[in-house]
Amino acid sequence: MENQYFGQQMELPNSKAVLIMGIISIPCCGLVGIVLGIISLVMAKNGTELYLSNPEMYTESSYKNLKTGKTCATIGLILGIIGLIASIIYYVWIFNGGAQTIMDMYGR
User: Fold this and answer.
1) Which of 4, 94, 97, 103 has the smallest number of Cβ neighbours within 10 A?
2) How many angstroms separate the CA atoms of 107 and 75, rounded?
3) Is the pTM of this model over 0.85?
């Protein structure tokens, strides 16, 4: 496949979006972090396939942005899952009278 841009390299599509959403997914622990992480990982997979099919067509910096965004999205996804599980455990514990049990133990 010949480069239609006469030697100019292009940025990978959505490489900046993957990086931005990956970074945002880290502090958004919970459902938002999970959604952003999954979307970023899917977009990064598509971008990686594009780059690997024709690496000379795309800039290396956009590929590095894609890889960094993928790493951030993975971290954000893991933190989001941990935050969601912790929230579920907390609310189940509160609604099952866990806080009352502790208050009864210490006489308050």
Assistant:
1) 4
2) 42
3) no
pLDDT in tens, the chain (108 residues): 444 555 668 999 999 999 999 999 999 878 999 999 999 999 999 999 999 998 999 999 999 999 999 999 999 999 999 999 999 988 888 787 766 766 677 765
Whether the Cβ atoms of residue 12 and residue 50 lie closer than 8 Å to each other: yes
Say if residues 58 and 1 touch (Cβ distance below 8 Å): no
The residues spanned by each domain of the chain are 15-83
CB 78 within 8 A of CB 30: no
DSSP string, 25-75: HTT-TTHHHHHHHHHHHHHHHHHHHHHHH-GGGB-HHHHHHHHHHHHHHHH
b or e along 27-40 (b: 16 or more beta carbons within 10 Å of the residue's beta carbon)?
ebbeeebbbbbbbb
**How many angstroms separate the most distant Cα atoms in the chain?**
79
